[in-house]
Write a structure and sequence with these properties.
With 554 residues, the protein is mainly alpha-helical. Helix content is 72%, strand content 0%. The chain has helices at 12-25, 28-54, 62-92, 101-114, 118-128, 132-144, 152-164, 167-203, 208-212, 220-254, 256-263, 267-295, 304-315, 318-321, 339-376, 391-423, 453-466, 469-486, 498-508, 513-530, 538-553. Mean pLDDT is 78; it is low at 1-8, 285-300, 328-334, 380-395 and 430-434.
Length: 554
């Protein structure tokens, strides 16, 4: 199951995981390169240790043995540099640079001149403790970058710069590796201690270890053998870790990690983007390129009037308008009004005439009623001069009120028109997108991040409708991985197995035991069906869906 990207450039745990799977994916020839360089030195070191510890004539050939050990040490470091270069080439997907006599000579020169100092610097740094991580990373970087071109000064500068890059990650990686190395050594010592007794029990073979008993464990040669075996088992992982650290450290300047991600873009999407870019330049390019030639007159033909007109046109552009003083608004000519403005003006005139007519009618009606009252009650005490002395003022107030109502109604109509305008059916802009091909569920290299969760669920429903329950089960499983990755409970990567996803989920979702249980059951069911070729029944698929819903709900 593949992930993208690499958060391994930042996370120590992801870096270790990627290093493990980088070793697992390395070809046998690359492991043979490491063994070719390391095993001769390790075996010679054990012989040298035993000979110098117990040999009666060790003093006579100590100088020759020391020279041989020094040569084998340089031999080992050179082949380890070749091994690290192979791991980096495998990570980048590029072919290794062909070897020449000059390149091999530079490799031998750098390793023989710089690596032996680590035999003295590292023990001293370990006693001080504080600079050990940087010193250890420096010498590992010399091995990881030993095949790159450059002199001794360049090699030291690059190794030192990579040692100080992401110091927190470097310290955390070394802390985790120290714990790992301790347990590997403990397993080696336990195996070496119990193996003679196992041989004696099963085959009756009696050795010097069974005669010496537990005291043989404290023999210096015995301990040297355990340390040597631990080094052989663990050192390839250390080389892979620092090869990746150098790759991600240099990628901060070169962008090689981004180039690898871009190289993984799907071909249909890439071709669609290229077609869109070519279409843009093909259609817009000639127009842009030809327009100046068609519209720009020659220098000799430009007149003063044309120059003034061009300056005025330039000054009218938005990027220069802010520099000009703001002009007073001019009255808009009625002939230049739009049809919408004329329609609104006509409506206002009609409403104003209607309001004036209503006011005049109401005034006439009230005056007629007053005259009628005077005829009916001629002796009434109503003041004759008073009643309509304020008719004009009352009419003016009523007119103002009607104008306010007209404004309110016009505002409501405007709001209604705006809402109707927004709700009208607008033509949808059709954009061209590359349609990614549906992933093949039979492909072993399929990645859970190739589709979102809903996409996998849709494929699972289609497979169920077709009666292919096995592929439906895999689609449901990929949907579960996509859901957990979206919630950052796991990180999808090509080198991770299902059990590693399960361990990662236990590490990141400790507060959600229900999710861990449901995912573990789904992993077991998926492994049985996909790798064990067990038959997928409706009941098993229903249980798988139930667990998936429980994962999504938590």
């Amino acid at each position: 199951m593949k992930k993208k990207s690499s958060t391994a450039g930042d996370s120590a745990i992801d870096l270790l995981e990627e290093a493990v799977h980088l070793l697992r994916g390395a070809p046998a020839s690359l492991h043979g390169v490491y063994a070719l360089g390391t095993l001769p030195f390790v075996l010679a070191f054990l012989y040298f240790w035993a000979d110098m510890s117990r040999g009666a004539f060790a003093r006579e050939h100590i100088s020759h043995s020391a020279v041989a050990m020094a040569l084998l040490f340089v031999w080992m470091k050179c082949w380890q540099a070749v091994f690290a270069a192979g791991l980096r080439a495998q990570r980048t997907g590029q072919a290794q640079t062909p070897w020449t006599v000059r390149r091999a000579g530079e490799l031998v020169l750098k390793q023989s001149a710089l690596q032996p100092s680590g035999l003295f610097v590292l023990p001293a740094a370990l006693l001080i403790m504080l600079p050990f991580a940087w010193a250890f990373a420096f010498y590992q970087n010399l091995t990881a970058l030993g095949t790159e071109a450059g002199g001794l000064r360049d090699a030291c500068n690059v190794a030192a710069r990579q040692a100080t890059t992401r110091s927190g990650q470097n310290h955390l990686v070394l802390g985790l590796l120290s714990v790992f190395v301790f347990f590997v050594w403990l397993n080696v010592v336990t195996t070496m201690a119990w193996l003679p007794y196992l041989l004696k029990t099963l085959f009756g073979v009696d050795t010097a270890f069974t005669h010496a008993g537990i005291h043989s464990v404290f023999n210096t040669t015995y301990l040297a053998c355990s340390f040597a075996l631990t080094y052989v088992f663990v050192d390839p992982l250390i080389k892979a870790v620092f090869a990746l650290r150098c790759f991600y450290g240099q990628a901060l300047q070169t962008g090689d990690d981004l180039k690898l991600e871009l190289a993984g873009v799907r071909a249909p999407a890439l071709s669609a983007v290229l077609l869109a870019v070519l279409a843009f330049f093909f259609l817009a390019g000639p127009a842009v390129a030809d327009s100046p030639a068609k519209t720009r007159p020659s220098a000799a033909a430009v007149s003063t009037a044309q120059l003034d007109r061009s300056i005025d046109e330039v000054l009218q552009k938005p990027e220069f308008a802010w520099r000009m003083p703001r002009e007073k608004e001019k009255e808009v000519d009625s002939q230049q009004e739009t049809w919408f403005a004329r329609a609104i003006g006509a409506v206002v005139h009609v409403l104003r005439d209607a309001a004036k007519y209503c006011i005049d009618s109401i005034g006439k009606l009230l005056k007629w009623l007053w005259d009628l009252a005077r005829k009916l009650w001629p002796d009434s005490s109503i003041n004759v001069s008073d009643p309509f002395s304020g008719v004009s003022g009352w009419a003016s107030a009523l007119q103002i009120l009607l104008l306010i109502l007209i404004v309110i109604i016009a505002g409501l109509l405007a709001v209604l028109l705006i809402r109707l305008w927004r709700r009208r059916r607008r033509p949808l802009a059709v954009a061209a997108f590359a349609i990614a091909a549906a992933p093949d569920l039979n492909d072993e290299n399929i990645a859970a991040d190739q589709l979102p969760e809903e996409g996998w669920l849709q494929m699972a429903r289609e497979m169920m409708a077709q009666g292919n329950l096995r592929l439906a089960l895999r689609a449901f499983y990929l949907a579960g991985l996509a859901n957990l990755a979206a919630r950052e409970m796991i990180a999808i990567a090509v080198f991770k197995s299902n059990r590693e996803y399960e361990a990662e989920l236990r590490r990141r979702a400790r507060a959600l035991p229900a999710v861990q249980t449901a995912f573990s059951q789904n992993v077991a069911a998926f492994d049985r069906a996909w790798y064990g070729l067990h038959e997928v029944t409706q009941e098993a698929l229903q249980q798988f869906q139930t667990n998936l819903e429980q994962i999504r709900a938590c």
